[in-house]
Amino acid sequence: MSLRPSFKSEVNALLLGITFLTRFPTFVLPNWSADACRKAVKYFPLIGVLLGLAIWLPLFFSQYIASPFLRGFMLLVYTSLLTGGIHYDGFSDTMDGLLSGRPPEKMLAIMRDSNIGVFGATTLILLLLGKFVAYSTILSSGGFSLHVAIIFLIVPIWARVNMSIAIVFFPYARKEGLGKAFSEASRIGVLVSAGAVVVALFLYLRCEWQEWFYPLLLSSSFAVCFAQWAKGKLGGLTGDVYGAIAESSELLLLLYFACL
After folding, report:
1. DSSP readout, the chain?
2. Closest-CA residue to 52 (of 135, 138, 150, 144)
3. 81: number of Cβ within 10 Å
């Protein structure tokens, strides 16, 4: 039996995940299909690794900028460009819907509306402001240290681990939609890939694993609670909620490390 078709489908799924979650050039246009979307979810934690590594280069050069506020702002702009701000849209739509106090079907309709409401705008401003403060605080320590580099590697990884967990362990709220295909991903595949990334991280951080274990556990606990709250409001999750979980997880971790 030839493994070539299977290998091609996995590569296509990886490229699709990169195209969907980032603005990295893939140079090959992936085939968007329901099967490819399902397979792509298990690569989300790995794509988080790519995002984390992509932050290191500007992080290194930013040490030569004196103002931590300017460094924080530049990093916020850069990370937004890396993802195309895709999760900002999901975050604002989710907050518009969940905070509206309407019935579930009305919330889903609000979340599909392309116009941003007061709840979405206010919470998005607070999200960006929180990231800016956290970035500036973390970078105020000065040079490009290993500890700071690890923080900016772990944060995007763990946000996408949390998002992957929400995708496969919570039902989808709508009968159709782009997120529907992602929600049908294999739990085993996602858990194996996320577990491999987690094990690799803790093997690397084996001397200081306790320093990282508790904030990561806190972040995942928050993500599960957020997903459960959204499920209670909507009857399930949507693609917008997936993005909101990723952004909320990043903010929580950044604020935790900033407080240290």
Report:
1. ---HHHHHHHHHHHHHHHHHH-----SS-----HHHHHHHGGGHHHHHHHHHHHHHHHHHHHTT-S-HHHHHHHHHHHHHHHHTTHHHHHHHHHHHHHTS---HHHHHHHHH-SS--HHHHHHHHHHHHHHHHHHHHHHTT-S--HHHHHHHHHHHHHHHHHHHHHHHHS-BSSSSSHHHHHHTS-HHHHHHHHHHHHHHHHHHTGGGHHHHHHHHHHHHHHHHHHHHHHHHHHSSB-HHHHHHHHHHHHHHHHHHHHH-
2. 150
3. 11
Lookup: tokens for 163: 């998002």
Q: What is the pLDDT of residues 69-93, one digit of tens each?
A: 999 999 999 999 999 999 999 999 9
**Residues whose CB is less than 8 angstroms from the CB of residue 143 and which lie 6 or more positions away in sequence, other chains included:** 63
Q: What percent of the chain has pLDDT over 90?
A: 63
pTM for this entry: 0.92
Q: Residue 24, Cβ neighbours under 10 Å: how many?
A: 15
